Model the fold of this input.
Amino acid sequence: MTRINKTILPLVSACLVGFSAHSDAQRYSDLFVDEQAYRDSDPLFFMQWHLQNTGQAAEAKNTGDVGNDINTTQAHVKRRILGESVNVAVVDSGLAIAHEDLIDNVLPGRSRNYIVGAADPTDPTPPRTESGGDHGTSVAGLIAARGFNGLGGRGVAPLARLMGFNWLENQSYESWLETHGGVGVTDDARIINQSYGFSPIWPVPFDSADNLQEEAHLANVTRRNNNGRGIVFVKSAGNSFSRLSNPASAFTFVREGTATGPLPWWCDFIPNDPRCQGSTTYTPDIIFSADARDATKTQAQSLPAQVAASEPSNASFYHTTISALSAGENSVEGQGDGDLLSSYSTVGASVWVSAHGGEYGEDNPAMVTTDIEGCNAGYAKTAATAAFNDGTHPLNTDCNYTSTFNGTSSAAPVASGVFALVFDANPNLSWRDAKDILAKTATKIGSNFKPIIVDTGLGDFVAEPGWLRNAAGYNFHNWYGFGRIDASAAVAMALSPNYRPLPAVQVTDFIPAQAGAASQIPEGPNGVVQAIVVRDALTVEAVQVKLSIRHGRDADLAVELVSPSGTTSMVLTPRSMYILDQGEPVERELQEALGTQTDFNDTVFLSNAFYGENSRGTWTLRVTDTNSGEFTFFGFERETREFTEITTSNNSRLGSITAASLRIYGH
Done:
């Protein structure tokens, strides 16, 4: 993920059934005649474990797990579905439109360069001096690097049509409109990939003017574009499982010292002793959770530093949020512990499905994809630390590809490629139909995952329950959504005459909690409960919860929602890095620029866990203060490369819910 986006929302359409049974073995016979030719036609395909995991290492030290992939072979070889009829927009940092393995899939004249004074406004190719690589070029390669041309690897949808937009280089609202379904620019895209976002350290209001304006635009786009079939807006979940940046140094913390007068002589040897220090203001560059710094805990025993819906666009029904998977399951004493999540991936109840993003390419495999061409720039360049990237590898002497791309920035385009295959198989599907198909065909993974329990000081609390099975029969996990994407199963369902499209979407207003409900939040595992009565009998697609809460330490709070059918979803896990309220007051100018706040004010979370259930009945909202003691997290300074432990005392008074409501999306 890169940069910050503002927040987004669209609306929806139902659609007609229809399909094209592309199962002819002669289709694309000019590209490959059989499965062996399919595997051999691109020299880097054998490294692309996310497409076909044979246990390869992709130049890392360790290998992946055989079969832990998105299962493209049957869709490509048997069904001959390659994405050719589908336009995909990549809204990112740029796109090298003349790259040798992208050029044949790039739609001529359809891309945009938003940098003021650009020589060619239709060419978002980054400069050859882009030493860190071009994020968008690598993202595009995962979606639709050209297949079967004897060059590089291939995308998930190797014949899909690409458009690139460097919106991240000039984030005007006008260019945002163009790149998100704008007339004559991206209005005919079936998928728009958004591998970007931001990670706030405070609860963000959903009803800001900017967010509502963008939401209204996307409501119109998804209702009208593509003859009412809409656009799938694919969104990366974030890279904040263990740490978050301190945006604009908004968080500062006063470290109390006891030194007065001249310092003792021994302070030269132990300068960090409080007796050798006066009170100082500390401003970390990065904020780490305590779990992330606890060497005794595996990731499967750790809570995330943030849930995806902390960013409002990931709390939107109209974005399809994707978490990231690694090449193999973590193993403890020879047994998988249920953790296939990439070490960085943000998670939460708003995740729809999971796709591969890999690790860092050193110990464990990263993603193999396109890079800026040439060895003087990019992720792959002369003197790069990874052997595949430094120009000496026989399959990458020109440094046109990289083996170290990762992030939910990788998972999102993998999912976008699968959506392209689904739409190529059945162009009559709406965006909601395609999401429905991915949910229905996803693979349950990490079955050994065990619930994560925290000590509140007054009793244990289940902070992350793991897999649940809802009343409609769907399996759901906050880390994986409905599971790992299965491209071939999704294509098969899209082609099936038995698949029935979803009816038109219906959306309730925000329905408030019943008047007179208790509002004070006690400490301990029981929390405070409020009831919300829904009279509409909809088949649930998603539920939003809107909250306003006053509390002295936001990171202590857990938020659960229980459906009338009894399904419980943890929509906000405790021990989050909502830590802005633990620091010094933010200066007014910075507060206005960032929109910071230290309480929940119309903050919205979204859960997909109730998919397919009946909405009618009494919903139960529970807010729990899970920590009656001290709270510890860590700051990190880039310049000194040092960690600093930060411990804050418990809130002095109990918190309270000042407003709560929910909204149902369904049919």
Observations:
- The mean pLDDT is 93.
